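We were asked to recover a plausible sequence for a given structure. The inputs and outputs are reproduced exactly as logged, with field labels preserved.

PROBLEM: sequence recovery
POSITIONS: 473
GIVEN STRUCTURE:
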């Protein structure tokens, strides 16, 4: 987040206004916002989803390159809060962490932003976005933190949240949750997915979002829904995310990243180009290397394709971690009819094969499929040297149809899913769950000291679902 102030204006200009714009005293005094369209109904949901106040909202923690010793946190207020802080202390059995000698305070970076999404006729919103990276933490330690304006007024501080740093013992077990596209009806329909996942794995170490978190990249309301759905989970479980095509502005042909991506999230900046900071990156988590490829930027230009391909080669050739996971929005092997990401596959699959990458976690196709290139439709239970496992998943309610392909071990349609992945030394356990908490797909992956892998396909509780069985044309 480099710029102190910038203004985002929609490309669509409103040319007619029949009535004079009016705002209540409450709006003028507290929120400093304007309404760009009378068709919008701020009385229904604006105060929960769009307008900021002095109190922090949209609080989210993210993994850093050095998750063992640090974490990043972002949040939002109105523009009356020009300076913001993070307070942190080691967790205690009681309120004694509040003693001054036990607390540390960090000053956040602040950006003042005006968002006016005229495409969706949303009101103009003035907000301050705050971010900080909390460094020099102890590994394997429980902390509490809060964010606020530094005053003695508790109303302008968040509650105290708990967060833990990972252990330096690389073979200690950890778990993360992988989500495909949330995208549509996020408050109404995706909220139960992320909340169910947290209920089933409350000790989860981080969450991974494979793009298309929302539908319209510049919609403040949709981003508000995404933060509302995750609520305190976002503030206690670190996230990483890779952008999808819907995080890129459709009004400029998906060539520009959402103006809210970098203010809202703090992600590693170790990618190959300045324009790929916080979208293409790599980090280590215990004995796993996690890599994000910016698939939309990859599609947009030859320059980005060449840069990301060369960078991925350098990251993988220097990798010292036992396990490697790559996440990207567009699939190497598409599941949906009429879709094929040929350039992505031709550039990246040779590297994935060369370095024996373990997992590739993707989205975009609004169906589910999991398998490996050597499957050849055989459907074996135990597979020696299966190679890379590819997964495409969807967590939101938007559903497409797929077509059966030889690489698929399991596929499904018209099902909202989340995947809990547990890594323990030389073993990965992968379980895909429906919103009812039942297993839709499952496998175990063992890796010996020579890097040879044995994959076991486990039984599922839910059989294959097809959209045509539920929705009649």
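RECOVERED SEQUENCE:
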């Amino acid at each position: 987040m480099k710029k102190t102030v910038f203004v985002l204006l929609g490309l669509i200009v409103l040319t007619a206004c029949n009535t004079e714009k009016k705002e209540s005293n409450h709006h003028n005094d507290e929120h400093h916002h304007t309404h760009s369209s009378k068709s919008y109904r701020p009385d229904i949901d604006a105060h929960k989803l769009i307008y900021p106040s002095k109190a922090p909202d949209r609080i989210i923690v993210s993994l850093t390159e050095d998750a063992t010793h640090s974490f990043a946190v972002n949040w939002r207020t109105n523009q009356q809060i020009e300076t913001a802080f993070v307070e942190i202390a080691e967790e205690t059995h009681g309120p004694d962490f509040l003693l001054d000698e036990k607390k540390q305070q960090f000053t956040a970076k602040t950006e003042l932003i005006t968002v006016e999404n005229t495409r969706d006729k949303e009101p103009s919103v003035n907000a301050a976005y705050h971010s900080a990276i909390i460094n020099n933490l102890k590994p394997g330690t429980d902390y509490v933190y809060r964010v606020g304006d530094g005053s003695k007024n508790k109303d302008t501080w968040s509650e105290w949240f708990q967060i833990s740093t990972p252990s330096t013992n690389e073979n200690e077990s950890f778990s993360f949750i992988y989500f495909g596209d949330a995208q549509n009806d996020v408050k109404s329909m995706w909220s139960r997915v992320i909340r169910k996942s947290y209920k089933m794995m409350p000790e989860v170490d981080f969450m991974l979002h494979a793009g298309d978190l929302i539908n319209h990249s510049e919609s403040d309301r949709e981003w508000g829904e995404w933060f509302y759905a995750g609520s305190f989970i976002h503030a206690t479980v670190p996230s990483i995310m890779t952008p999808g095509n819907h995080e890129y502005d459709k009004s400029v042909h998906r060539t520009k990243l959402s103006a809210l991506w970098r203010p809202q999230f703090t992600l590693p900046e170790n990618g190959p180009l300045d324009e790929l900071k916080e979208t293409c990156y790599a980090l280590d988590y215990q004995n796993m290397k996690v890599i994000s490829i910016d698939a939309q930027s990859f599609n947009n230009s030859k320059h980005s394709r060449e840069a990301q391909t060369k960078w991925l080669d350098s990251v993988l050739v220097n990798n010292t971690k036992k396990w490697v996971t790559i996440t990207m929005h567009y699939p190497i092997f598409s599941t949906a009819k009429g879709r094929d990401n040929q350039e992505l596959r031709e550039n990246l699959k040779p590297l994935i094969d060369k370095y024996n990458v373990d997992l590739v976690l993707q989205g975009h196709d609004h169906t589910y499929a999991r398998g490996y290139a050597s499957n050849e439709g055989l459907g074996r239970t135990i597979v020696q040297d299966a190679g890379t496992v590819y997964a495409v998943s969807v967590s939101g309610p938007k559903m497409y149809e797929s077509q059966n392909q030889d690489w698929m071990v399991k596929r499904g349609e018209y099902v909202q899913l989340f995947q809990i992945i547990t890594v323990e030394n030389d073993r990965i356990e992968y379980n895909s769950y429906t919103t009812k908490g039942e297993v839709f797909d499952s496998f175990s992956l063992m890796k010996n000291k020579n890097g040879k892998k044995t994959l076991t396909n486990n039984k599922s509780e839910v059989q294959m679902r097809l959209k045509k069985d539920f929705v009649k044309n």
